[in-house]
DNA sequence: GATGAATGAGCCTTCATTCAT
DNA sequence: GATGAATGAAGGCTCATTCAT
């Protein structure tokens, strides 16, 4: 279905303002927590009124839900790209961890929301998110399994392994500072190395 | 200062009820988030009225603050014990990680609150907590440094190393399930191993 | 009915503590207003617990009521003394004003309560107080009338005259400061003079 | 800054409703005392919901504060008008007293609040009010001093004189009844006379 | 379409008062 | 007799959401 140029323009504006609102909301939610942020706060941070926000979103929850969906999408996309290359497990895992860590650092705010505000979703939304999380983990666990079978990865329950690996990366949303002494890239590399080889030196 | 037997009894009862309330609150806060939990909810979960809660605590924030203080104390105590033994770095780090992971798993709820609800504290409280976090990390970084100097730990910025190690452990509060296939001890051991030696096998 | 020595002692203590509480309450009520003062505040200011206050009084209102009664009694007593002397109107009025002004200044706190917190009384109490106020005023109006008939007081509606005279005195509870440059006696004398002769000098 | 016609209309309506609310609140505060009046009471007395009141005011205190500011403004304006005429002291004082008395009677409710609820203001507000009170008194004291120097006013500490004069007038808020036998004008005149010449007739 | 006004449910907190030992 | 514990009724205030123009 084609849209008239005018309708198209309007749709564009809608999308633009929505993005703006979602971004502003994400910033605030990450700082203070979903419940502590008012629709008014979100509007004010963009010099809009409450009503404007309600014009573009039906509810506060809807904004949160968009954040959840967008973050998932970006994570999912990253991993699909890597999978598509059919790399050997060691190489794949290295890239997955690196990319995951970078994603966490680049979108710290979104990640914080993702991990903290799940309880603010309704049951259906929560189920959906849980499912996607499982999919994401499953893809990585597959790689881990392949690595074990190829004899290159340490034998251990893959769920524990992957949760551990991702855990270190996810935690970056807590301690990574943009202004810090190391760039995100550097930190990501350190993580990859630490996870791959451990903190012990091999005699 | 000595208390009369009567006053002592009273204090004991007070402390008991306070513990009860803090525990109930922690459970609810962890499940639903601080803001989403009502003082009424906390009371009801113990078959108390809201007023009883207010008889033992001056504010909702005070309950949260007690949770923060108690959790810090338990973490701090663990590490002090280990430090007191003056073990070589490799041994010490292994124990620290193991104990930290176990702490996280054993008190998942408290840990969740610790990491999620910091923004609900007031400025002074936040400062205090930040200071304690730094102390805790510093003690572990000291061990890491000693390990690097002894040539047994991988050379890397100690702050990144320790944040990474603890990150994997901290993340356990997200995914560890008491009912899972593996015990907390087993999981802790896997983490220690993974962190120490990496997921790669050494040809 | 005679009381045993023991019961007498007890009654004395009761009366003593009650006085203490009423005095403490009056001070607080005057400072912050009846509603803004807690039973706990009253107790605490004497290092008592709330329960102690309730042991000596049945309700907060009862304390307030005692204040009202006591203050009335002291005003009433003063005027009775003066009336008993059967002085000529000019002399009597001069004494009444002087004594009234002194009463206001000496018990500023009580007076403040008397004039501010009447709405906190219940209907019956309010009626009783209104009646007493009328009695008090009536006695002074009588003097004023006698003065007019004797040709020594300015002819004007006696109610207005007396309300005006007392008004100036009552207002002292607002501006009189114990630490001020003038003693209560001096101020009372100035008032008497001002009221008797006016602020204009007679050419 | 110019407002669009629309914004202007809005502002007008806002101001109108605010006035309405302040007036209703003043009436209730005067009757029952600030603390005894609920935001709900204020709303209900205008057939508004509590929420409407909160839409137009941020807090109960803000309403009280507006009352304080408005009453001060009206008193201040009156005296400025009189001062502007540069009358001789006797004439000026007569007008000041008369106008002050009338002000008190015409806005009894506001005056009652002004004198009773000062303790409900916060520190800063209280300071501001105290400062204004001092300014007001100072202007009248100036007149009194001029009168003394001109030899037409009784020699006495001006602060005591003015506090006394105003005291009689202020007290009107306690006893003046609109329905009474005398009009406000009449009463004001009686006060002026009484204060100027005293209650004694001059032989 | 855009937004100012209104709403109602709910939450934290306070406090006079009662109760039980 | 004295008091610690408990209670319930408010009250101020917030806020997501709806409504009406």
What is the distance, rounded to the nearest whole angstrom, between the alpha carbons of the first and last residues of chain A? 67 Å
The CATH C-level class name of the largest domain in chain A: Mainly Alpha
Our count of helices of chain A gives 10
Overall residue-averaged pLDDT value of chain A: 93
**Alpha-carbon Rg of chain A, integer:** 20 Å
Strand content of chain A: under 5%
Q: Sketch the major β-sheet of chain A.
A: none
Regarding quaternary structure, how should these chains be classified?
homotetramer
Task: Show the largest interface.
Answer: A-B, 50 and 50 residues
User: What sort of overall outline of chain A do the alpha carbons produce when their principal axes are compared?
Assistant: elongated
| CATH overall fold name of the largest domain in chain A | Tetracycline Repressor, domain 2
Write out the CATH superfamily name of the largest domain in chain A: Tetracycline Repressor, domain 2
Structural class of chain A: mainly alpha
What is the CATH architecture annotation of the largest domain in chain A? Orthogonal Bundle
Q: How many domains make up the 3D coordinates of chain A? A: 2
* Helix content bin of chain A: over 70%
- The SSE order of chain A reads HHHHHHHHHH
Give me the count of strands of chain A.
0
Low-pLDDT parts of chain A are: none
